[in-house]
Amino acid sequence: MGDSDDEYDKKRRDKFQGERTESYRNDRRKEDDWGRSRVRNDYRDRYQGYQDMPPNKRMRFEPGDVDTQPPIMTFKAFLQTQDDNITDEEAISKYAEYKMEFRRQQLNEFFVAHKEEEWFKLKYHPEESQKRKEEQISALKKRASVFLEMLNKSKIDEVRVDADQGDAVVKLLDSVVIRLEGGTDLDLQVLELTETPPDKEDKKEKEKEVKEPDGEEKDTDEIKEIKEDAEADNIEKEESKEEKEEGPPGVDDEPSKEDENSEIKDNGEMKEEDKKEPKGDDSDKEQNDEVVPLTPRPLHKTSSIFLRTISPRITKQEIETICKKYPGFLRVSLSDPQPEQHWIRRGWVTFRRDVNIKEICWNINNIRVKDCEMGAIVNRDLSRRVRSVSGLSAHKQVVLHDIKLCARIIQELDARYGLWEEEESAKETDASSFCLASGNPVLRDITEFLVEEAPAEEEELLGEGVVTDDSKNRHSAALKVLDRLLLYLRIVYSVDYYNMSQYTSEDEMPNRCGIMHLRGMPSNTEVSQQEINDYCESYKTKLEPLVRPPETLSEAELTQLGAKSEEAEVEKFIQANTQELAKDKWLCPLSGKKFKGAQFVRKHIFNKYSDQLDEVKKEVDYFNNYLRDPKRPQLAEHPGNRGGKKDVPSPSDPTFHYQYPPFKGRGFGHFGGHPFARGRGGFPRGRSVDYRPIITYRDLDAPSEPDEII
Q1: Residue range 427-445, pLDDT digits in tens
Q2: CA within 20 to 30 Å of 252's CA: 80, 120, 270, 701, which one?
Q3: Which domains, from first to last, does the chain contain?
């Protein structure tokens, strides 16, 4: 029996069912599958015409994708836990105390969760952080010594930080890297070697291809000669065989003893000669080793592997132990963990340039450290070493502003790391003087560029601005001073001024002096004073963290966040290890000894377990160092803890109603990203208030009713 029209239409619709949206498929399944269990977020409400806007589509993400703090109680939920007779002032103060206690608890939990990890210790542990700081200072001093060497050889003054001088800047940075890697003057000659451009190589290949036919003819002639010689040898062998066969009867074919002895002697002589030959080869090798000239090493070029996913439980030493097995290993660099990716770290492993980096990468990729894959891939070389910025950076006012800002940054960084303390202590300095007080040779003789000069009287008399040759010469001299400051910041402190950033941990990265931004070519168009001011202000704002000292919290703020005291924590440790068994009988759990009084247990702990008391003090410093950092890492705030927008009307407003638009993003509290809908919690929808007059359609001649609203 044939299908009906309804069934045929249904099949036609089912053919395109896979192309429907997910919400459409869910609605179709509601009609067919009645016994299927419903998931709370399996569907979304349809758009009603009276709503302000349609609901958002369901976001696809894992519920535990991002680690966040737990939700904090709202003020309304907090009031439900308090007494009904509480006043408004008490409620507000207690709620503020609750929020502060919640914050203290979150900081303490985060500290306990991460205090055993290496990256956390390098930041805040009193001993590990001090070692890290000493390593950084030693690396900075080495960079400063290399810069002074280049400065004394006039290599710094020969380079201009302009866009058209990119090759000279790259050569200078590479020479610095060679010196940092322990290279000699011979190794610096590798930068003078010019590589053949690809065009010339193509021409050489074409010339070889053109000459190939002549070579084929020569090969054929040689092959003919070889074939003729082979045929002649075969003929001689056949003739010798025939002579042997045609020998007279009775003649023995075996050789005589004399012949054997002669052959043995000959063989013995050959063997002795063969034995002597290796000795001659060894002597030749020794001579060759002495004769072979030393070649410059390309120490500025490296090969590297990028590790995409490193668990925070994996230490740098463990990765170094794995990578040291392969030839050409140099160093390992690990980044700070990423909170948005479950505190996963990234790493770079650097090798020499002449190694087979792909084979090493394949071997490392097959290794699991603490049941974690590191995701090793080959790191590509830098595509562009130098990059240019706006040509406005070459303007005279901008150059003078940059000199002042660079001088302030250098002074602050030198004081922060104490690079020139010996030179400064040898001089009697005045606190009011600027730059002359520093022992840094880069900051000498730049005071004249820190004070602006202008022909004010001449401009006033002539009524217009006058550009003299002296001003042009002064601008060129200012550029020279600025270039020296820029190169000092880039080489010593890894500060790329024109990029307004500092490349942290660059000394451990594959490229120790990789990228640098240069001044762009000045434009011929006129520039307004407002553009110059905005340009200078943007640099000043973004480089402000390098100008001012690192921020730390005050003692009052630390106490408010729950800072610990050494005396209190030591007392807690002693009380925890002092147990009263009976009257005049006390036990020390650390040693198992018993004493007649608590004071004897205290004395015993101070005498025998001073190392554990020191650990308690270090733990206190460890935690307080974490609290002192205003940029301390911590879990992201829960979306439900964020307050609403300021433009949301208050309930006292007569136009206020609880008709909220749907929230965007990844969920809001426990609502899962859905709008506040019926049956899903949140505020009740209510009705929106409409103040437009109601239009009536009654007859104008009809009498008015008393209860009628017009």
Answers
A1: 544 444 444 567 888 888 7
A2: 270
A3: 1-43 (no CATH), 302-379 (3.30.70.330), 563-635 (no CATH)
For residue 378, the cross-strand partners are 305
338 phi, psi to nearest 5 deg: -105, 115
Assessment of whether the complete model's pTM goes beyond 0.85: no
Q: How far is CA 205 from the centre of its chain?
A: 43
User: What radius of gyration do the chain's Cα atoms show?
Assistant: 42
The highest-confidence range among 130-144, 208-222, 687-701, by mean pLDDT, is 130-144
* Centroid of chain to Cα 524: 39
Greatest Cα pair distance, the chain, in angstroms, is 163
Half-sphere exposure of 591 (CA within 13 A, CB side): 17
Cβ neighbours of residue 378 closer than 8 Å, sequence gap 6 or more: 303, 304, 305, 306, 357, 358, 361
DSSP assignment, residue 394?
A: G
Task: Specify burial of residue 617 (Cβ count, 10 A radius: 0-12, 13-18, 19+).
Answer: middle
- pLDDT single digits (tens) 562-602: 999 999 999 999 999 999 888 889 999 999 999 888 899 99
SS (H, E, C) 196-262: CCHHHHHHHHHHHHHHHHHHHHHHHHHHHHHHHHHHHHHHHHHHHHHHHHCCCCCCCCCCCHHHHHH
Segment 139-148 shows an average pLDDT of: 94
Residues 6+ apart with CB under 8 A from 75: 91, 95
pLDDT at 475 (0 to 100): 79
**Banded pLDDT at 660 (limits 50, 70, 90):** very low
Q: Which two tokens stand for residue 268?
A: 């013995």
3-state secondary structure 533-552: HHHHHHHHHHCHHHHCCCCC
Given a contact cutoff of 8 angstroms between Cβ atoms, the answer to whether 41 and 58 are in contact is yes
